[in-house]
Each structure stands twice: as structure tokens, then as C-alpha cells.
Design the sequence.
């Protein structure tokens, strides 16, 4: 029970409470951090407090962070000159002596710095991989033992004064010019252009002379567009997120856009060097797939969307899961353990949520800020379907979902349908995390692939690769439809019909060997979820390995394969192939995630925790990739994470469904390996 007690402690801190928006702190280019540092605002801090802390003027702060002139808030990341007192540099020392320290569980750079009296930057200097990698258990670090701090303060970096022009200038409209084009040209918003020229609200006319308020760059730079591109400021952008996403230095951006001295405004058109990430880079139109999307699909690796993010505004995601906080006793551990032991829905919800929290933290490293609203749907099986549905209604009707980018949950299909219906008028996407038995409206996203997709995946592989094979089908009475589909692809396929007795299905010893070929490769399909029958078939076929080439397949790996009666050694020998919603992760590929999860919860992540992580991480990346979840889904992009992949497609008027599944096979080391192939479309 340790696992769930550890996780529930986190969950109960969040349930019924909305997390404050946090602004992500992520790594920008190395040149940026050579001249600037970042400071994350803490609750109650003012610009004056921060200026005093770093020994700089308030004007220096607001010059680099124009949006701080209006307000600063808890979590906002400000950029500051690296010459401030808070970022004094450490001088290199001669004759240093070192010891080797092996990192233990839960040790951090901060704790090692305190233990040895050595600044974190110095530890990194002599262990350079820590500039790009996080600290891991078992790492061996070189720690200086005779280090003496010497502080040298840099001279203040003076940013070039912005080039200003007249408070107002004029522009003569030429053929094919638009308000957007003129606003972009002068670095202002369309609203500002219309405010200065009320007569243009109805449209522009060739030859009109209009006023342009406070032009942002000299005429020579306006004309020369071969070297520059443009970026439209989006809602939620800050100076820090812009510098990170555009890969620019603050002085460079301010020089090109002096109007930033007056503050950052949504809709403002910024001038940036041509080729800056996100500049002049529209979101793919509905139903289109961009060239970048095709590259992402070809890469098929975790985090591939991270190279195509364009919108770093804070994402608001609501999570609705049945935590049952009202049933938890604050002073009786034994009661809580019984609750966790007997309530599978609660255990599943806690695991999902633990992964969701991890994904939100990891998204920050990419510059994606998240406001997480967590709601307890208080599901209780004893209350019945109608009562539980009303609990979901109460959550939605009692809270403001305007501005929510996505809702993950509820857990059960009927409750998801209700949530989808209630939120459809606000066009809020509702993601089903587990159930694929969902009707829903146009705002539904079914993240778990339909059962039929698994069968179709295997049939597509068979259609592409089954020619010249001796195909044998063993199917019980419940799987007649699948048997017919395989026969339709290969009319010459042989069939073995299991006999039915008082103790279930059975075969005679010669039923299978009589259908196998000595010359051809034998592809044997077992379509059943009956444990004794599967055990009989796999044992029988395993005896043929060596004398004949035999590969075992199924279109549906049901729960029977989890039985101890099915020997995995036999499945390995038969190179067992099956379709699956999840793959099996390899520790070396996801070591950072697993170690971080174990450090946080003191247990390895379950498949549901990983699903929660993959789903949340994919959702946040899609929201930062396109203007909303609908556009991201319509782009056709396919993503692949720790154990799950996602490729959404429209299901008529019923929203979107995930079409991405794996085809896996057993390898010699009893590992599961993905079988990659180009699918055949009917």
C-alpha cells in the first residue's frame, strides 16, 4: 500500500483546489545566458524589492521586462543583466584538490553545494555534463575540497539605446496593401492603426494617406525585409517566453522593436531576424499536414513536437477524476489503506494523476506554463449511475470553464459523455483518458484507440507481408468475425476449429501439426481469450519449433495472456506478434522519467501513471504547437512517448479519436519490440 499512500498524499493537496498559474523557467540559447539571468517572482515581491536584491535600478528591470511596468505576479520570470549582484562570477583557482563523490538517492546539486561549501556553478564547471544533464543517482562527481570563493563583479552591460523616430508619421496606401500588412510593417497592432485612423475600419483605399502612431523602426529598416521576418505577439507572451521561443537576445529584440519600451501588447507585430523560430510560420490549415508534421511522423520519437512549438502562453487544463476525498479519513491510516485496497477506480485515478503532475513539470522545461485546475468527481459505485452523473454536472456548473484549453476526464464513459455535452457550448475539448466507449459531442477526444483498430493493425500487416506464407487460423466461436476477415485476405488459409466440451475448448494432438507446412513459413493465428485453449496451442506449436518455422499471431491479446498457465518462454520461441495500445518502455531510453518518478513517489510508475504522463504531455505539446487542440488534431501529426502514441482523426460529428496503435513482438531476450511497417489502407 506504500505506493498509493505516497501518491494520495500529493493528490489530496490538489483536489478541489486550483493551482496558481506558473511561468516555466527553461533554457534559452547559451549566448543569452552569458549576458542575462532569470528571476522567478515570488509571492509579494515588487519591482523595487527585486531591484534592491540584485543591486540594479527599477528602470533596468522594466527596460528588459516592459510588461513588468503594469504588474508582476507570483511565478512571472524576469530577465536581468548577468552583471547584477545576484549573478556574480566565480574566479578560477589554481592548485585545487578534488574528491570523487558518488551521488546518492535524493541528493541534489543544492544539497551537495551546502555539504561541501562549493557553489553549484563550480560543481558544474568540473562536471561539464551537468550543464546539459540532470543529476542522477550513481553519478560520480569531481568536487573541489580546498575551494575558496572569490567574488568579482562584472561591469554593467549597457544596452544600446533604441532608435526612435517621430511620435507619428504618415503612410500612403498602395495597391494590395492590407491593414495587417501595414501594422506588421510598422510594428503596431491593427487596433492601434484603426484608433489613429477611424476612417479605415471599413477598409483601405489606394492613395489614402493614413497616420501611423509612433513608428517603431527607421524607414531604411522598414524597406529592407530580405533580412527580417515578423512575429505576432500572442496572448500570454512575456519577454522571457519570446526570447526563448525566438532564440534572440534581449538587446537585439529591443533594438529592432523600440516600441517594446512601452510594453508588450497582444497582437503587436515584432520585427525579428529572418529564420527566427515561429516567425511568419502560420499554423497548418484545417485538415492540412505541413512538411514539419511529416518530419515529426518520420522521426517517431519522444518529444518530436518540441521542435515545432509556437505558442508559449499559459495553458489552462482541468482534470476531473474520482478521488473520493470525502471518503478519506485524515487521522486513520488503516481506513485509508482499506479504501485504496478495495477501490480500483481510486487507485487508477491516483496513478493517472501522478503522471499528469509529472508531465506538467516536464512541460515547464520546454517553456510551457500550466494552470492546473483539479476537480474531484467523487464517484462512488454504490451511488448509482444517475447520482454520479449529477456530481459531474455539479462540478461543471459550479466552476468557471471559460478559457480552459482542455479537460482531462472524467474517468467513466457515461460521465465523459455528460461533461462533453455540458461543455460543448463553450467549445472546451474533453479528453477521455481511459474509456473508448464514448459517444460525446464534437468536442470529445477519445485518447484510447478503439478495439477494432487493434485488429485492423494486424490485418494490415498480414495483407502486406503474408504472401507466400502458410496461414493457419485457430478461432473459437466468439471470434468468427475475425476468422472471416483473415479468410477474406487469404482464401487458401487453413482453419482449425476448437472442439467444445464440458471443461471448455480443446484440440486433438494432431489438429495443429496436420495443418503446418515443412517448406513454407507458418503463420498461425490464435483468436481466443480462453486460457486452456491458448496454453494448448502455444505448447503444441512450441514443440514444432526447430523442425518447422512457426510464428504465432493474434489480433487481440486479451487478459488470458496474463495467466501463469501461458508460458512466456513459448511466446518468445514463437516470436509472438500482437497489436497493442501500449508498448513496453526500455529503462535506458526513459531513465530520467523513471528516476524522477521514483524519487518523487518512492515507487516505480505503473502503466496508468505512464498513461497519465503521456496523455498530459501530448496535450500540452499540441496546445503549444497549434492555436488549439482541434487544429493540432486536424494537422494529422503523430506523436510517440514513453508507452503511448497519439494520432487523432475525426469520427464524423462525434469529435476526434486516437488512431495510433503498436504492433509488437517477443524477442529472444523476452523483451517486446515494435514492428514497424507502412500500413495498407483499404
Sequence:
Amino acid at each position: 500500500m506504500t505506493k498509493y499512500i505516497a501518491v494520495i498524499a500529493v493528490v489530496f493537496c490538489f483536489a478541489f483546489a486550483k493551482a496558481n498559474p506558473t511561468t516555466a523557467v527553461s533554457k534559452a540559447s547559451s549566448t543569452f545566458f552569458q549576458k542575462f539571468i532569470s528571476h522567478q517572482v515570488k509571492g509579494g515581491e515588487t519591482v523595487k524589492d527585486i531591484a534592491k536584491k540584485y543591486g540594479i535600478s527599477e528602470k533596468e528591470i522594466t527596460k528588459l521586462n516592459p510588461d513588468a511596468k503594469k504588474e508582476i505576479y507570483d511565478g512571472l520570470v524576469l530577465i536581468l543583466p548577468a552583471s547584477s549582484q545576484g549573478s556574480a562570477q566565480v574566479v578560477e583557482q589554481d592548485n585545487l584538490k578534488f574528491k570523487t563523490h558518488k551521488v546518492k538517492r535524493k541528493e541534489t546539486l543544492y544539497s551537495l553545494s551546502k555539504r561541501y561549501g562549493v557553489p553549484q556553478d563550480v560543481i558544474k564547471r568540473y562536471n561539464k555534463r551537468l550543464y546539459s544533464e540532470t543529476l542522477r543517482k550513481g553519478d560520480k562527481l569531481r568536487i573541489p575540497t580546498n575551494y575558496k570563493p572569490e567574488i568579482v563583479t562584472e561591469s554593467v552591460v549597457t544596452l544600446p539605446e533604441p532608435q526612435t523616430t517621430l511620435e507619428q508619421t504618415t503612410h500612403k496606401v498602395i495597391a494590395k496593401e492590407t491593414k495587417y500588412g501595414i501594422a506588421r510593417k510598422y510594428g503596431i497592432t491593427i487596433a492601434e492603426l484603426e484608433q489613429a485612423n477611424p476612417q479605415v475600419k471599413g477598409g483601405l483605399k489606394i492613395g489614402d494617406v493614413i497616420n501611423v502612431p509612433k513608428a517603431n523602426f527607421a524607414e531604411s529598416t522598414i524597406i529592407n525585409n530580405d533580412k527580417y521576418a515578423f512575429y505576432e505577439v500572442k496572448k500570454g507572451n512575456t519577454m522571457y517566453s519570446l526570447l526563448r521561443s525566438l532564440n534572440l537576445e534581449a538587446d537585439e529584440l529591443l533594438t529592432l522593436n523600440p516600441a517594446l519600451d512601452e510594453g508588450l501588447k497582444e497582437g503587436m507585430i515584432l520585427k525579428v531576424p529572418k529564420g527566427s523560430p515561429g516567425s511568419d510560420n502560420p499554423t497548418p490549415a484545417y485538415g492540412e499536414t505541413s512538411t514539419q508534421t511529416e518530419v515529426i511522423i518520420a522521426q517517431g520519437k519522444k518529444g518530436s513536437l518540441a521542435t515545432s512549438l509556437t505558442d508559449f502562453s499559459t495553458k489552462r487544463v482541468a482534470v476531473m477524476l474520482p478521488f473520493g476525498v470525502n471518503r478519506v479519513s485524515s487521522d486513520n491510516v488503516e481506513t485509508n489503506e482499506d479504501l485504496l485496497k478495495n477501490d480500483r477506480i481510486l487507485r487508477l485515478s491516483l496513478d493517472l494523476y501522478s503522471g499528469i503532475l509529472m508531465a506538467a513539470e516536464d512541460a515547464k522545461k520546454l517553456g510551457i506554463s500550466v494552470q492546473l485546475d483539479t476537480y474531484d468527481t467523487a464517484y462512488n459505485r454504490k451511488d448509482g449511475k444517475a447520482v454520479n452523473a449529477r456530481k459531474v454536472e455539479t462540478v461543471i456548473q459550479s466552476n468557471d470553464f471559460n478559457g480552459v484549453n482542455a479537460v482531462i476526464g472524467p474517468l467513466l464513459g457515461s460521465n465523459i459523455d455528460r461533461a462533453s455535452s455540458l461543455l460543448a457550448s463553450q467549445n472546451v475539448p474533453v479528453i477521455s483518458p481511459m474509456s473508448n466507449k464514448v459517444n460525446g459531442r464534437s468536442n470529445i477526444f477519445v485518447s484510447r484507440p478503439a478495439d477494432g483498430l487493434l485488429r485492423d493493425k494486424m490485418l494490415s500487416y498480414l495483407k502486406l507481408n503474408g504472401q507466400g506464407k502458410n496461414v493457419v487460423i485457430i478461432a473459437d466461436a466468439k471470434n468468427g468475425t475475425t476468422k472471416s476477415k483473415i479468410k477474406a485476405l487469404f482464401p487458401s488459409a487453413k482453419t482449425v476449429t476448437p472442439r467444445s466440451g464440458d471443461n471448455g475448448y480443446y484440440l486433438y494432438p494432431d489438429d495443429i501439426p496436420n495443418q503446418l507446412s515443412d517448406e513454407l513459413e507458418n503463420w498461425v493465428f490464435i483468436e481466443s481469450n480462453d486460457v486452456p485453449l491458448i496454453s494448448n496451442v502455444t505448447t503444441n506449436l512450441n514443440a514444432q519449433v526447430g523442425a518447422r518455422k512457426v510464428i504465432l499471431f493474434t489480433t487481440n491479446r486479451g487478459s488470458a495472456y496474463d495467466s501463469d498457465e501461458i508460458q512466456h518462454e513459448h511466446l518468445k520461441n514463437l516470436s509472438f506478434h500482437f497489436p497493442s495500445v501500449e508498448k513496453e518502455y526500455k529503462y535506458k531510453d526513459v531513465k530520467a522519467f523513471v528516476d524522477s518518478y521514483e524519487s518523487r513517489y518512492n515507487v516505480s510508475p505503473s502503466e496508468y501513471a505512464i498513461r497519465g504522463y503521456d496523455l498530459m504531455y501530448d496535450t500540452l505539446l499540441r496546445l503549444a504547437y497549434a492555436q488549439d487542440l482541434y487544429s493540432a488534431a486536424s494537422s494529422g501529426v503523430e506523436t510517440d512517448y514513453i508507452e503511448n502514441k497519439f494520432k487523432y482523426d475525426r469520427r464524423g460529428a462525434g469529435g476526434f479519436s486516437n488512431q495510433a496503435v503498436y504492433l509488437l513482438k517477443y524477442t529472444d531476450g523476452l523483451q517486446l519490440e515494435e514492428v514497424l511497417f507502412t500500413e495498407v489502407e483499404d
About this structure: The first helix runs from residue 2 to 14. The mean pLDDT is 77. The radius of gyration is 30 Å.
